[in-house]
Amino acid sequence: MLGFLGSLAAGSLTAIGAIPVLFGRIPSRATRDLSLGFAAGVMLAASFFSLIIPALDAAELRYENGAAPAAIVCVAILLGMGAVALMNEKLPHEHFSSGREGPEGASLRRVWLFIIAITIHNFPEGLAVGVGFGAEGISGGLPLAIGIGLQNAPEGLAVAVSLLGEGYSKGRAWGIAALTGMVEPIGGLLGAGIITFSQPLLPWGLAFAAGAMLYVISHEIIPETHRSGHQNKATLGLSIGLALMLFLDVWLG
């Protein structure tokens, strides 16, 4: 339940972040790239400090010290990255910057191509929050829920603004952006449930969620922030997001 509620709260901030489009107050492209850089920094720090390090600790409790804990975590990270890469390859979807990817999706309405794309990116975030709560309760999940919630706000705004550019109305753009955040509670429930009922899977689940988020950072968020020549602001945002998430993890975890 904590995993579900935590990921629900984090996903809801996607809708809150998109609210400015309802009032026509759209930040500049440079500001949006800085915000997305912040999101990447939060996810990067969360992947290592809230997921990978706890995964190593959990593996060491079962296998003591040696190569086994490191091998388990490394394999799980690669599996997480591979799972999202496979979804990118097999599901028809459309990115705002690079266009249509995956199998031919001409029969799908354009709006659903966008929704599938954002679902691919948001599901690992909900999974990570759920795994955090399932592994260590509030102390493990709360920093992740706050950090991912904070980075969901600029993501929601980016989605809504991009949809406005495609000709959608303000209300519809906001509604679709809000809907994309609602996949996170599904991932949260799944992650928390698996870890709660099968403790041996704990290091695998933590590292798998980290790998999935790392793929999203590298494949989508960072390239998007560098596409319009605002690399310096995007890197500044990444630095702030990483430092803030590290602070939250140490303080609350």
In short:
By secondary structure, the protein is mostly helical. The chain has helices at residues 2-17, 29-63, 67-90, 110-165, 170-181, 184-197, 202-225, 231-252; strands at 93-95, 99-101. Strands 1-2 form a two-stranded antiparallel sheet.
What does this structure look like?
With 253 residues, this protein is mostly helical. It is 80% helix and 2% strand. The protein has helices at 2-17, 29-63, 67-90, 110-165, 170-181, 184-197, 202-225, 231-252, and strands at residues 93-95, 99-101. A hairpin with a 3-residue loop joins strand 1 and strand 2. Helix 2 (29-63) runs antiparallel to helix 7, helix 2 crosses helix 8 and helix 4 (110-165) packs across helix 6. The model has no long low-confidence stretch (mean pLDDT 80).
Q: Which terms would index this structure?
A:
253 residues, mainly alpha, 2 strands
Shape: globular
Q: pLDDT average, as an integer? A: 80
Spell the H/E element sequence: HHHEEHHHHH
Radius of gyration (CA) equals 17 Å
Distance between the termini: 19 Å
Q: Strands of the biggest beta sheet: in what spatial order?
A: 1-2
Instruction: State the total count of DSSP E strands.
Output: 2
In DSSP terms, counting alpha (H) and pi (I) runs of 4 or more, how many helices? 8
* pLDDT < 50 runs, ≥5 residues: none
The share of residues in helices is over 70%
**Percentage beta strand:** under 5%
The helix/strand class is mainly alpha
What can be said about the biggest beta sheet? 2 strands, antiparallel
